[in-house]
Amino acid sequence: MNSISLKRKNMLQVRWHSRAGQGAVTGAKALCDVLAAEGKYVQAFSVYGAEKRGAPMNAFNRVSDEPIIDHSKEMYPDYILVIDPSLVYSGNITYNEKPTTKYIITTNLPKAELLRAAPFLEGKEIYLLDCIRISQETIGRAIPNTPMLGALMKVSGLFTLDQFLEGMKKTLKKFPQKIIDANNAAITRAYNEVQ
What we know:
This protein is an alpha/beta fold. The chain has seven helices and six strands; from the N terminus they run βαβββαβαβαααα. A six-stranded mixed sheet has the order 2-3-1-4-5-6, covered by helices on one side.
């Protein structure tokens, strides 16, 4: 891991906006697995509405160099990850944002078109990529969590691409090699394509 220090006052907080079945919970857990292996204190948890596939839901991460004693769902995220593009328009993805919050949004729209459709995002630090297309083309299914992790690594600088891929190989070691390779291909593409 690089030299980023995550002291309590600078605890890294991430909020995922997703629909049930798109892998946000698994993505949040995978992120924590990789960071915990580097000696960080981590939390990954989720909040569901109706517990059925397709229902809007949130997943959360906290990461620190010190033990995390806050177990509430309320946070002021450093990163907001939107892995279902429809949630940009149907939910309040900006709640509890900070002036420095960065958004990574799955969309096939150019930035200007997204901002016309969602003017409340104007002036915010936004990064875009099509995680759904990337996952379909690399993994074979529309599970956009893994590409979102690749984009997060690029935007956050928490890990170099090679460091994160190594961490994910360990996290995914129980799966067949072709699944590990497909997920790492998705991470690599997202890391290179996010803008």
